[in-house]
Fold this sequence. Notes:
This protein is α+β, with helices and mostly antiparallel strands. The chain has nine helices and eight strands.
Amino acid sequence: MTSPTEQTIVPLRVDATGRVAPVTEVRSTLLASSILALREMGHFDAYLTKLPHDYHAPVLESVAGSWLPIAVAVAHYSAADALGLTAREQFEIGRSVAERVQNTALGTLLRVAKTAGVTPWVGLGHFQRLWDRLLRGGAGSVVRLGPKEARVEIHGVALVDIPYFRNGWRGMFAGSGELFCSKIYVTEITTRTTPSSMSLRVAWA
């Protein structure tokens, strides 16, 4: 629900019953980029000890750009979370993931971002389109809170229960947002977090 001073930029996509369909598949690019960041930070061997053996092949041998069942994503993010990294480290991994998926997931938008005068509102306006390139099911919304402040919500994502995913998602928003501005701040609105949804406050300078 938005207040009279808020403006919906991207409405939440719901079905005929008013519900958001749950995420059923995740693009392998997200997991591959996350694993590469863990490897670069020296955590890959420890990560393998946390990842159930049955998921080694689905996670590590997936074809680039393919769709993976949500259960595979849960196994990956749970294993990464079990490493006990700090929230800041998880955030930075998310930022790294954003840098790696920008060329494939953002495509034309990345080129538009380099145009003088483009603001984060351009990227936020394409949020649902970008979502659909990375996740099957679920939905997001964007609400304008002020000239340089927005609330971004994601719904229908079973991964929200995992801190590593939430902090990494913040990092992804920060990494992508920096294409459009000099400084961006992304914080979780914890009072709105549920087992399958979360909200972020995004502000920039």
